[in-house]
Amino acid sequence: MWSVSVPPAPDDERVGVRRAWREAVGVALATSAYGVSFGALSVASGLDVWQTCVLSLLMFTGGSQFAFVGVIAAGGLAAAPAAIASAGLLGARNVAYGLRMSPVVGGGFWRRAAAAHITIDESTAVALAQTHPAARRVGFWATGVGIWIGWNVSTLAGALLGDVLGDPRAYGLDAAAAAAFLALLWPRLRRRQAIAVGIAAAVVATVATPVLMPGIPVLIAALVAVVVGWTNWLGRRERNGVAA
After folding, report:
1. What digits encode the pLDDT tens for the residues 36-95?
2. Helices and strands in the chain, H and E counts
3. Is the pLDDT score of 3 beyond 50?
């Protein structure tokens, strides 16, 4: 019998890798841009320029950084425990991303250590959007490293320009992180259960913010989101075909 072998499709893989590069560069440029707002807000909240830059170098997760300086700005040093807790809670999602990215990154201690530092929303999203393994690796590393470099450069620029800009809230820069998170979250709000989780957390945070110490409403809202998401009663009804 004649044996027929199907050759690989290197052209498809090359096309996928090029697409991953394009997406990585675009996402890196867009995400890095609002590092300017973090730098300006951090200096306005009372942190020095070097402290602001260290946060971006070492913490490197925008949501946690904005949460940290936001709580410090509202509550001062007395709110530091709540600021740390809020930042840690928001950063915990990166653990789940790390588990998902482990097969993409590959082996080796130093490779995994470096990958852990750049495992964020954007690098994970770009990697998972690719179909070929090589394209996924390119998407992850190019996005993560690109954002890390751009974020730190723009953080420094924002911190140095903080005095020139004045109050960053006057330019709407304080809403940059929230807008970025909403852009990432919006495509996921397609099921009623996910919408219910978001609404419940938003209502609790809105009600609690005027009466509780800064940072605490975020923690309470997160707890409510976990409880509502864990019960998943709307999700069960959707699977069973029952109208909510």
Report:
1. 888 988 888 888 999 999 999 999 988 888 888 878 877 777 778 878 887 887 788 888
2. 14, 0
3. no
CB atoms within 10 A of CB 145: 16
Name the DSSP letter for residue 5: -
Q: Which of 7, 76, 1, 67 is nearest to 45 (CA)?
A: 76
Over residues 211-223, the mean pLDDT reads 78
How many structural domains are present in the chain?
2
Residue 126's pLDDT band, with cuts at 50, 70 and 90, is: very high
136 in the same domain as 18: yes
Alpha-carbon distance of 204 to 221, in angstroms, equals: 6
- Alpha carbon dihedral 97, 106, 137, 56, in 10-degree steps, equals 50
Find where tokens 């890798």 sit.
17
Which tokens go with 42?
Answer: 């951090």
Structural domain of 228: 189-244
List phi, psi (to 5°) of 45.
Answer: -80, -5
Q: Are residues 89 and 133 in the same domain?
A: yes
